[in-house]
Amino acid sequence: MNKENRIHNAALRSKVMSATEAASLIQSGMNVGMSGFTGSGYPKAVPSALAKHIMDANLNGKRFKIGVWTGASTAPELDGALAMVDGIEMRLPYQSDPTCRKRINAGEMEYIDIHLSHVAQFVWFGFLGKLDVAVVEVAGILEDGRLIPSSSIGNNKTWLDQADKVILEVNSWQSAQLEGMHDIWYGTQLPPNRQPIPLVRSSDRIGEPYLRCDPEKVIAVVETHAPDRNSAFAPPDENSKKIAGHILEFLQHEVKKGRLPRELLPLQSGVGNIANAVMAGLNEGPFENLTAYTEVLQDGMLEMLKSGKLASASATAFSLSNQALAELNADLAKYRERIILRPQEISNHPEVIRRLGIIAMNGLIEADIYGNVNSTHVMGSKIMNGIGGSGDFARNAYLSIFMTPSQAKGGAISCIVPMASHVDHTEHDVQVLVTEQGLADLRGLSPKQRAKVIIENCAHPNFKPALSDYYKRALEFSPGKQTPHLLEEVFGWHLRALRGERM
Ligand code: COA
C-alpha cells in the first residue's frame, strides 16, 4: 500500500488512528453525516469498521443503529456494509444500494427522500435534528488545517460545520491533482439574511478550493489508500440511441426557432445509462462549445470534455466508470481548469439553476398521459432510488426534459400509464417527454392536448390502443372536465402488473 503523507498539519497528524478505533467513537443512536456522492469521495474504512462493530454488538444482543446522512448514493463499503448488519435506523437523502433498498421496502429501515438541494439547509434550519458526527473523506490536509476535498463535495461543508465531532479519512489514492478543482462557497446564510449567490456563468468560481474545519472538533484521522467505486455504464442500446436522437433533433429545432443559442444552455444530465447515452449522442452531434451545470459528471461528459465539445463542466461529484476514472486521474491537471466541483447546495440550487437557464434531462419510472412523472416508486409503493436532484433541476430549468424507454420488464409494463401511481414531478414541471417512440413537446398545451401528444408520440404500439381507449372513455365519462379520468379503473393497469400479468 502506497500511503504518501497527505497530512501536513501537526495537530491533526497526532490524531491518526486505525479505522476500528475511529469507528468505536460512534455510538448507537447518533446521526452521522458521511461524505460521498455516487461512488465518489465516500469514506472507505470507517463505515466498514463500524459495520463490524455493529455486528459484534448485535451478537451480544445489543441493538446498534445510527442515522446515515450523505450527499447521495454511496457504495457497497458504506450503504451496503451498514445495511447488511441492519445498522441504519434512518437513511437520507438518496440511495441506490440493493441491500438498503431491500431493507427500506421490507420496513426495516426508515428513509426520507429529500431534494438534494434541501439537505444542507434543512440541517442548518435544525429540521432534521442534531448531527453528531461527520465522517468525511478528503484528499489531503494542509499545514494550516484546511482540507483538500476529495472526488465529491456533496454536503461535506455542512457536515463539517454542523457536526459536533469530525472523523477525517485521508485517502492517498485520490489524485493530488484534485487540489484547486473545487469551489466551496462560504456565503450561505440563514433567512432573513441570505444574499444572492454571485454565480452568473456555469464556469464561475465564487469560493475557495478548500474545506474549513475546526481542528478542535476532529476526534480521529484515518489514513486510507482505496479507490472510488462506480459501476460501468452499459454501451448505449438501440432505445437509448433513439432517445438521444429525438433529443438532439429537438434541440436543433429549438436553435433554429431562436429559443436556444447555438451553444445551447448549460446541460444537466441525470443518472444512468440513458443519460450517459444522450451525452454520447451530443458528442457526435453538431453543437460546439457546450457547458454543463449538473450534479454528476459521468463518462459521457468526460468524453465531451476530451473531444472539446464541452468547454467546461460544473458538478458536485464524479460518477465515472473505473476506466474513465483512470483516464481522468492520469490527466487530471489538464482538466482542472475546466471542471469545477461544488457543494450540492450550490450545484443544485434553484436560484442558480433558474438564473443560468439549464437544460435538464432526467430519467423516470413512469409518466402519465397528462405529463405527471414518477421517478421513484415502482407500482406506487416500492422505492427504487429517490428523487435525487431531479426536482431541483426540473422545477427550475429553462427546459425540463424527462426520458424513458416506453416499456419496462420485457414489455410487460408500459412506462406511459393513465395515472402515475406516485408523483415526483407534476405536470407543471414537465415540458418535454421522450421515449424511443418519439418526443412530446408539452409546452403551451392543456392537459387534454397533452394526453393526445403523449399517447401518440411516446407510448409503445403494444399499449397505444389501450391508452387511447382509456382516454376516449374518460372523455365520454366526464365531458368537458379539465383532466378526465375513470377513477374506478385508473390503477387497474398497476393492479394487473402486480398480479404478474401484462399491464
Ligand atoms: N415499472 C417497474 N420497473 C421499472 C419501470 C416501471 N414503470 N421503469 C423502469 N423500471 C425499472 C427497470 O426495469 C430497471 O430495473 P432493473 O434495474 O431491475 O433492470 C430500473 O427500473 C431502472 O430503469 P432503466 O430503464 O434502466 O433506467 P435508468 O437507469 O435511467 O433509471 C430511474 C431510471 C428513474 C430509476 C433513475 O433515473 C432514477 O433513479 N431517477 C431519479 C433520480 C434522478 O433523476 N436523479 C438525477 C438527478 S441529477
TrEMBL record:
Residues 334-470 form the Acetyl-CoA hydrolase/transferase C-terminal domain. Signal peptide: none annotated. Residues 12-223 form the Acetyl-CoA hydrolase/transferase N-terminal domain. It holds the Pfam family AcetylCoA_hyd_C. Keywords: Transferase. It comes from the Bacteria. The keyword Transferase applies. Belongs to the acetyl-CoA hydrolase/transferase family. This is Succinate CoA transferase.
